[in-house]
Write a structure and sequence with these properties.
By secondary structure, the chain is an alpha/beta fold. It has helices spanning 11-23, 34-43, 60-70, 85-93, 106-120, 155-166, 174-181, 192-204, and strands at residues 3-7, 27-31, 48-51, 76-80, 98-101, 129-132, 135-138, 143-146, 149-151, 213-216, 220-223. A five-stranded parallel sheet has the order 2-1-3-4-5, with helices on both faces. The mean pLDDT is 90.
Length: 226
């Protein structure tokens, strides 16, 4: 798991970035103060850091300069509302590898982050694919394939399959599925979880020799090969 440092004093923006990156399997440490961010990023190893410019304590430009003194290879992305040519030149001359303006689309931030990681880590692979046995889903395009065959799922079926793929070989109770796939409290008087598991089975198991979704009677469901 790649470790990302985020220095951003806007709580809402920081929370959105952190949540989005964690959804793509990145380990994110978020800090709202430039001085504290510099201390943390110098003391601990990070694969990439994202810096706002206008922060309490040291500003992002100074944090970037200080980081560059002892770490020439750390990918640094400046994320700021300061968008003049002069601001960009100052940011890049301070040692930043890329410069992204606010407001921004998360997909663009993610694409730039992954481009920097590809450049600095030969073994880097984007975290947009989840696989188990011969089934693969793309979490960006929400597409599903099994043994090279594309499978069309509804939104709820896709969410359910993604939950299984994130928890392979793990028994998932109906309550866990309800809370994590649909963010609802499980009602023991309803069979909605069983219904959707059966819908999903018909699409990813029915036409294949090996079943992947198995039932543990009275306990829940598990994604496994045998």
């Amino acid at each position: 798991m790649f470790k990302i440092g985020l220095a951003e004093d806007d709580i809402k923006i920081a929370s959105l970035i952190k949540a989005g990156l964690e959804e793509h399997q990145y380990d994110v440490t978020s800090i709202a103060d430039g001085t504290e961010a510099l201390i943390e990023f110098q003391a601990n190893p990070y694969d990439l850091v994202i810096l706002d410019i206008m922060m309490p304590g040291l500003n992002g430009i100074e944090v970037c300069r200080q980081l560059r003194i002892n770490n020439k290879d750390l990918p640094i992305l400046i994320l700021t509302a300061l968008g003049s040519i002069e601001d960009k030149v100052i940011g890049l001359n301070s040692g930043a590898d890329d410069y992204l303006l606010k407001p921004f689309h998360f997909k663009e931030l993610l694409a730039r982050l992954e481009a920097l990681l590809r450049r600095s880590h030969k073994n880097f692979a984007p975290k947009n694919q989840l696989s188990f046995a011969d089934i693969t889903i793309d979490t960006y395009s929400k597409t599903v394939e099994r043994a090279g065959k594309q499978i069309e799922l509804t939104a709820k079926e896709y969410t359910l399959l993604e939950l299984f793929l994130k928890n392979p070989n793990r028994l998932l109770s109906r309550q866990y599925i309800a809370e994590n796939a649909w963010d609802i409290t499980f009602d023991t008087g309803t069979n909605v979880i069983d219904v959707y598991v059966n819908f999903l089975r018909k699409k990813i198991d029915k036409d294949f020799d090996k079943r992947l979704i198995h039932t543990k009677i009275g306990m829940g469901y598990i994604l496994k090969e045998a």
